[in-house]
Amino acid sequence: MTQPVALITGASSGFGLATAKRLLMRGFRVIASARRQDKLAALAEKYPSQVLPLALDVRDRAAIRSAITELPTDWADIEVLVNNAGLALGLAPAQAANLDDWHTMIDTNCLGLAAITHAVLPGMVARNRGLIVNIGSIAGDYAYPGGNVYGATKAFVHQFSLNLKADLLGTAVRVSCLEPGLAGGSEFSKVRFQGDDAKAASVYQGTQPLMPEDIASVVEWLATLPPHININVLEMMPVCQAPSALAIHRKS
Ligand code: NDP
Ligand code: 8X3
Q: Can you give the pTM of this predicted structure?
């Protein structure tokens, strides 16, 4: 039997890279996609013939369309799509936020994820098999100061996942939205704080956050469940985190 194919976006670091390694260990072949070709090439070198590097900016609709339609025949039947590419930019309150950052987050986290899905989904439906794992976030469920558009993009991921499931009823194609909380060991906070390592490190000070391998192990679990089970939404947090009480501002 040929090894199933997983397409992972954002496979150059963090959750995506850890998930690629996990699925490779489970016998998948991986189409590893991201913008940084050097990182993808390093992964492909480590796993020759098991990894197909795919340099792609998920904000480029035309590039996505041609990349998916031009996949080599033996890589074209994507069994698992992990829509993981995404980012947060800044933590400023909405009234002080950078509008370009908002556009980048919406273009990447919402439109990019939708475009990849739009390109891959028809093949899954035609084969009547497949799994889409969308990486959302607790930020899509719980508001926090400075989360404004980032949280809203992840609320999109949550609802898009559920609506996909509604459309796919009657097919064997599955959709899951995985929503992690505080997670370290990736480039997420460095990107959010524009390369400020000290600020990024302070996010995790005194905590034991989730790590990319933790998220990868849950994706692996989702990808190896019996085919009649669909996990709709899965929220995960480190033990050191909890949904907080509603905030109240009191006059002093
Ligand atoms: P990383 O910054 O380590 O990984 C983000 C990945 O997305 C990179 O591989 C990056 O690759 C890729 N990416 C970013 N923009 C684009 C783009 N325009 N086109 C293609 N690829 C892109 O962070 P994480 O691993 O932590 O984040 C992965 C996902 O998990 C994100 O969607 C994030 O929102 C979500 N998440 C993160 C949490 C956390 O606390 N870390 C918690 C909950 C959810 P490259 O730069 O090479 O293109
Ligand atoms: C990342 C988790 O809490 O920084 O999605 O938004 S959080």
A: 0.98
